[in-house]
Structure formats: C-alpha cells, structure tokens
C-alpha cells in the first residue's frame, strides 16, 4: 500500500508539548510537537473508548486521554497501562517548507 502525504498545518500552529486534532476523510489524527520540536502523529481516538486525544494532556512524550486518564507514548503509540491496553497506530510526519505533512494510507 502506498502513502499519500497531506498538508496538516504550519509548524508554528502547534506549540511545544502540545497536541492538535486533524481530520482527513473519515479519519481523525492527533498531531504532537515535543519539547524538542519533533513532530509525531497517532490515531486521534483513544483505543479504550474512542475519545479524542487532542482534548487530553501532553506531558513530555505522553498523551493522557481526558476521559479515563489512559496514557500512551505518542512517539511509539505504546499503551502505558490500564485502562488502555491497545496501542495507538502511529503515522509518519515530515516538515516541508515550514508546513507539517502527514502520511496516510492511499
């Protein structure tokens, strides 16, 4: 399967240690900027109860779901403990000419 690179936003639209929601087609993604200005992307819904992760709290490299406080390492998608036990899907990102792009399945 090939990937399609889509424009998300300007890199300055996401603060360090923050997350934003990005919808494309029928999918929702969560896009993160770490404290060292690296960018990451995961599925946008918690694997526990399909709550938008962009409404959660970012701490270092962890996103905490706003409903039941499930936590994931957003770099790898790894679930970090109950109530979440299913990892998040991650997606490649890149910066081109000051814009953040996300690779989605084509």
Give your account of this protein's structure.
There is one protein chain. It is built from no helices and ten strands. With 106 residues, it is mainly β. Strand 2 (18-24) and strand 3 (27-33) form a beta hairpin. It is globular. It starts with a strand and ends with a strand. Belongs to the bacterial ring-hydroxylating dioxygenase ferredoxin component family. Keywords: 2Fe-2S, Aromatic hydrocarbons catabolism, Iron, Iron-sulfur, Metal-binding.
Number of strands: 10
CATH topology: Rieske Iron-sulfur Protein
Contiguous runs where pLDDT drops below 50 for at least 5 residues = none
How far apart lie the N and C ends? 7 Å
Which term fits the overall shape? globular
CATH-scheme architecture? 3-layer Sandwich
Q: What is the overall number of helices?
A: 0
Strand content: over 45%
CATH class term: Mainly Beta
Integer-rounded radius of gyration: 13 Å
The residue-averaged pLDDT reads 95
Would you identify the CATH H-level superfamily? Answer: Rieske [2Fe-2S] iron-sulphur domain
| Main sheet specs | 4 strands, antiparallel
Give the ordered list of helices and strands: EEEEEEEEEE
Coarse structural class: mainly beta
Helix content range of the residues, please? under 10%
Our count of domains comes out at 1
Task: List strands and helices in order, with pairings.
Blueprint (H helix, E strand, L loop, with lengths): L2 E8 L7 E7 L2 E7 L5 E5 L13 E3 L2 E3 L6 E3 L16 E2 L1 E4 L2 E7 L1
Antiparallel strand pairs: 1-10, 2-3, 3-4, 4-8, 5-6, 6-7, 9-10
InterPro entries: MocE_2FeS, Rieske_2Fe-2S, Rieske_2Fe-2S_sf
Organism: Pseudomonas taetrolens
GO molecular function, one term: 2 iron, 2 sulfur cluster binding
């Amino acid at each position: 399967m090939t990937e399609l690179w889509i424009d998300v936003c300007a890199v300055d639209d996401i603060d360090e240690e923050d997350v934003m929601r990005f919808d494309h087609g029928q999918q929702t993604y969560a896009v993160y900027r770490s404290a060292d200005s690296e960018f990451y992307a995961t599925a946008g819904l918690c694997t526990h109860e399909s709550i938008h992760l962009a409404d959660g709290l970012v701490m270092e490299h962890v996103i905490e779901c706003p409903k039941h406080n499930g936590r994931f390492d957003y770099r790898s998608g790894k679930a970090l403990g109950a109530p979440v036990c299913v990892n998040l899907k991650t997606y490649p990102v890149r910066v081109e000419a000051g814009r953040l792009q996300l690779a989605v399945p084509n």
